[in-house]
Design goal:
This protein is α+β, with helices and mostly antiparallel strands. The protein has three helices and nine strands; from the N terminus they run H-H-H-E-E-E-E-E-E-E-E-E.
């Protein structure tokens, strides 16, 4: 599960794509005699054409009209003075069972639930990565990770305090701990 702060240009592109799918479906259904008999055949071809144009233009027209989504007025990432450290698991901890208790110590930052493009260097979210793969976006400093599908052996757990738009601060605020999952 990956979340992000969608901009107006991205929202318009999604609306254009869904409209294209809907119009294309109506045109296709009419041409194959499965409904929409009141639409003349040339109109069905027109709907397919409009659908194709919407698909193509949804890639660049919203951004051209509304401009790209920016994360700050200068376009650079904010710098955070927050620090992040693992309380649990401890380095080289042996973990048995199907769950891992994760406890983080966040200093100088506040975890917020709202996703926004109005950024502050002291507010954001925490992303948890297991062996480099995102496994959680949490709104707190404590959680339980499911390890049922994690193979026995050594693993790296990384936590990153990110800005409220889910993108990293500059430089990134991270902490990493190695642990070993015991065999079954």
């Amino acid at each position: 599960m990956i979340a992000h702060a969608a901009g107006t240009d991205e929202s318009l592109a999604i609306v254009m794509l869904f409209t294209a799918l809907w119009l294309g479906w109506i045109g296709w259904t009419r041409l194959h005699g499965r409904g929409f008999e009141r639409i003349p055949r040339p109109g069905a071809y027109g709907l397919l054409g409009v659908s194709g144009i919407l698909v193509v233009t949804s890639a660049f027209v919203p951004r051209a009209l509304l401009g790209p989504k920016t994360t700050s007025s200068s376009g650079t990432r904010p710098t955070s003075t927050a620090t992040l450290a693992f309380v649990a698991p401890t380095p080289q901890q042996k973990v048995s069972g199907s769950e891992l208790n994760v406890i983080l110590d966040l200093q100088g930052g506040t975890v917020v639930q709202a996703t926004t493009s109005s950024l502050s260097p002291s507010t954001g979210h925490i992303h948890i990565l297991l062996d480099g793969a995102l496994v959680s976006m949490t709104f707190g400093t404590e959680q339980v990770l499911d390890l049922t599908s994690v193979a026995p052996g050594p693993h790296a757990l990384t936590a990153e305090f990110v800005a409220a738009d889910h993108l990293p601060f500059s430089p990134p605020v991270t902490a990493t701990v190695d642990f070993t999952k015991a065999g079954s």
